Amino acid sequence: DIKDLKVFHTIAKEESIAKASRILYMTPQGISKIVKNLEAERDAVSLHVINPAFVEAVSAVKSVITFVGRK
């Protein structure tokens, strides 16, 4: 769902679920639910654990978004 990807994009851009929730006018719980659903759909590792790998993943997502935005 494009809305779910927009949520993920906003989290990556803001590097915070709380900030993303304010920008998107959603509750942090609602955003967390969307992230969990994305993780389940994509069989992904949890994005909720803040660690160096998460920061690196967010950085990679930002790079992809920037690259795609140029086309």
Q: Could you explain the architecture of this structure?
A:
The longest helix is centred in the C-terminal third of the chain and has 19 residues. Helix 1 packs across helix 3. By secondary structure, the protein is an all-alpha fold. The model has no long low-confidence stretch (mean pLDDT 76). It starts with a helix and ends with a helix.
Write a brief structural summary:
This protein is an all-alpha fold and 71 residues long. It is 77% helix and 0% strand.
Features:
globular; single chain; 4 helices; 71 residues; mainly alpha
Layout of secondary structure:
Layout: H1 2-14, H2 17-24, H3 28-42, H4 52-70
Helix pairs in contact: 1-2, 1-3, 2-3
